[in-house]
What does this fold into?
Amino acid sequence: MFKNDLYTDQELLLLIAKGDPMAFRQLFTAYSRQVYTLCLRLTKDAEQARDLTQETFARLWTKRESLPEVRDFKGYLTTIALNLIRNYLRRKVLDPANAEYLANYFRENTLLPDKEMELKELGLALQEAVDHLPPQLNRSFILSRMAGMSHSEIASRMHLSPLTVKSHIARALTFIRAYLEQHHPKLLTYSALFFFSRIL
It folds into this structure.
């Protein structure tokens, strides 16, 4: 990692807090590759990783007045990046056009062992949310996501139009996300969100 010969990270943070652009550039040079690597690993999208890296440091600059209070800069920077990544992935999860992206993501990734308990808890919370769906939304969601049926197949079985089925599933997804955010917000970490997107 690049280190300035004259300044420690803490000294650079003090200079950045005062609006020093050269100190900010030096910190960017030192840490941008690490942030980019994290963003790329979690999004699997080079262009998006670059955008998220830029946004991470933009957030750092806008919050520069609080930097003198930071004692673990690497952890602080990582938290900013992960929050941005999580927000990005939330948008991906809720956009039906991203089904191919999510399928590709899970073909290329395996979950870390230390996340198994967290994901088990999320699975139980997800089932809890599904159980609270209104009957027709519940059935449409289960037939779609658990049985793997198409909208047309579900429509035929439930004696509905495919458009109605599509509406049911969209409403179910909105309900489940809101339920988890209200009742189990601590479970929705960036790693658990990947599991969530796999189901939804």
User: Anything to note?
Assistant: Residues 69 and 120 are 37 Å apart (CA to CA). The chain is about 75% helix and 0% strand. The radius of gyration is 21 Å.
